[in-house]
Amino acid sequence: MRIQKTREQGYLTFAQGAKYLECAYLLALSVKTYCKINDFCVAVDTDTAKLITDAQSKVFDEIIVLDHMHPFENENRAWDITPFKETFKVESDMLITSCIDHWWDACRLRNVCFTTQVRNYKNCIANDSKYRKMWRDNNLINAYNGFMYFRHCIETKQFFEHCQYVFENFNTYKNKVISNCRHDLPDTDVVFSIAATELGSENFSLPTVSYPTFTHMKQHINNFETEDWRDACSWALTDDMTFVVNGYAQTQPFHYFHKDFCTKELIQRYG
After folding, report:
1. CATH of the domain at 223
2. Using only C-alpha atoms, what is the Rg of the chain?
3. What single-letter DSSP state applies at residue 101?
4. Which of 14, 117, 139, 188 sees the fewest Cβ atoms within 10 Å?
5. Boundaries of domain holding 86
6. Are 208 and 112 in contact (CB under 8 A)?
7. What pLDDT sits at residue 255?
């Protein structure tokens, strides 16, 4: 499936199943709360499409229904299915916490641009070595697909085609190319990092600016003693819609990671 690019700029996420659909809805509401450039597209499978409510359909500007979805292959199809000429591809379990419209201008200096440094909840660049040893051992670009940018052009098409090649040949990469690969399945961060490195890492990041980025709430990125950040932190959404964690106002896209953080009460606040 290849979708006509009829919209200029917008956000794309994937949702498979009821919980991911709720997360996508919360993400869309947060985009529209803070950003003026806020067109939003969700890609779902046929079963998930049946779960979309009237309230959700009013917030989703585009709904793309795919015949089938593979948890690790969906992202490889982003170039084909996005309705936008320029796309912010965001994982569904994120919140936008401030206006990031200015990111578009810098990101379009690249055809594809990844988050390569994530942040902790104090907005400091995080030490992610606990999770990224394989990347360092193999000199891979430290690509996070959680928040990325791409535009509609032949170079982007070639990148996603190469991602599909890596995906289909992952066993060869795992056993013969990448050392110390402990990933049994080709998850998206690994596939995108291999593809971008082979095509030239310098073409996929913006070293002169601090974005794209996001706050990652995984345990060791934040030096928590517990796996669930909510057991280590307090959080609040103020009356003026400032999202606060342990007294720190959040301004970056916020990867809350635990899907049950997305509650009906939080959705109502953003709605």
Report:
1. 3.90.550
2. 18
3. T
4. 139
5. 7-261
6. no
7. 98
In a domain, 270, yes or no: no
> Hunting for tokens 């709904």 — which residue is that?
63
Q: For residues 233, 234, 237 and 243, what is the CA-based torsion angle, rounded to 10 degrees? A: -30
Residue 90 lies in a domain: yes
Using CA atoms, how far residue 20 sits from 64, 71, 129, in Å, is: 15, 12, 28
- The pLDDT assigned to 118 comes to 97
* Residue spans of the chain under pLDDT 50: none
What's the number of domains the chain is made of? 1
Angle at Cα 137 formed by Cα 134 and Cα 138, nearest 5°?
Answer: 85
Query: Using an 8 Å Cβ cutoff, are 143 and 193 in contact?
Result: yes
Contacts within 8 Å (CB) and 24+ apart, 76-80: 76/160, 76/163, 76/164, 76/167, 76/188, 76/191, 77/1, 77/43, 77/160, 78/12, 78/150, 78/160, 79/150, 79/152, 79/156, 79/157, 79/159, 79/160, 80/1, 80/2, 80/3, 80/160
Q: What is the pLDDT of residue 74?
A: 81
Q: Is residue 66 part of a domain?
A: yes
Structural domain contains residue 2: no
Find out whether 212 and 147 touch, Cβ atoms under 8 Å: yes
Answering whether pTM is above 0.90, one says: yes
CA dist list (Å): 261 to 44, 99, 267:
21, 22, 10
Residue type, 237: L
